[in-house]
Amino acid sequence: MDRRQLTAESVPLFQEGIGLLPSRWSVLQLVVENECGGRDSCRKAQLLLSDVFSFFNSSKEPLYIDDLEMILEESLLSLNTMAEDGCIISSLDWFKAC
Fold first, then answer.
1. Under 8 Å CB-to-CB from 75, ≥6 apart: which residues?
2. CA distance 98 to 90
3. pLDDT digits over 13-71, tens only?
4. Which of 4, 8, 17, 41 is deepest in the core (most CB within 10 A)?
5. Burial 4-16 (b: 16+ CB within 10 A, else e)
């Protein structure tokens, strides 16, 4: 992915966009609602969003979609969930569109 620096004006909009991920990713919704990751499933989901934001905003290195996929997979594992139905790939497509 091209490495572009977020402007001060774009940071809140980008954070808002990342915050929409749970509403568009049904597996994450189900995992949080059913507390598959334990009582702190909601906190773990928020950590996932924070990790995604940091991936895009803090990295000085070139961004690779495989690295983002790893972040999403590891976050789902922390929620005791594995995504084998292609939902991570569809989420990555959503990020590319952003």
1. 44, 45, 47, 48, 51
2. 13
3. 989 988 888 888 888 888 899 998 899 999 999 999 999 999 888 878 888 888 988 89
4. 41
5. eeeeeeeeeebee
